[in-house]
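Lecture notes, unit on protein representations.

Consider one protein chain, 267 amino acids long.
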Amino acid sequence: MKNRQNTSHAVMAQRSEALDSLDDFPTPPWATRALIEHVISGKHDLPRMTCLEPACNRGFMSMVLEEYFAEVRSSDIYPYGYGEVRDFLEIPYAAGSVDWVITNPPFRLGEDFIRKGLNVARRGVAMLTRTVFIESVGRFDRIFSKNPPTKFAQFVERVPMVKGRLDKKASTATGYCWLVWEKDAGTKPQLVWVPPCRKSLERETDYQLPKRQEPQARVIQSTEAELKPKKTAQQKPRSRVVESAKAELKPKKAPRQKLPPTGDLFE
């Protein structure tokens, strides 16, 4: 009898990654638009707000966030070629330094990203996770029982994610959801569904690699270079200038006059 792969949902929904894995699964852009269009409250205020995407990968999520926010700061621990290279969990961020923190975090670091995101964001945090993320007793004790999300938004459509690339034709058995903390909501956790929206929110250009975003460090260096005063004509060293000035101020000797012959004086 031939061995057959178990394709049940219980098995296929599992995605095993090594502990040192970068968890390189780019987010389809339509799934990020779904967050703004169907989940977050007050989307009309976003054009006046800032957003941090701390696990930006190749920029597919940041590209969409830039459609809605006034400013999007993108970074990742690995140099994928988009945004600043920065470890979100290790490098300090000022509390309340941005309005929103929105990302697709590495699954094994999801709790850490949520905790730090809630400290960094003024208005809210949104994390795209596998649906099974909410099942853990440990996570309930450490996060959800103390600081539950205001919205648990479950996709009714599948959100295909492929390791290392974005594939329009990919499929998956894994369910995904948005976990959202809206700090000003003041409501109990709500279960909402992300309605079928891939067809209406997907664009042909979504699957083109986003243009490289210049890292912030380079921008700062460039600005400093522009502000640095330009060199004027080369000046003499201070010691030479002083010596030259002394020489000019020193009184010049008058030319020595010749005396007439001695005999001419007594004639």
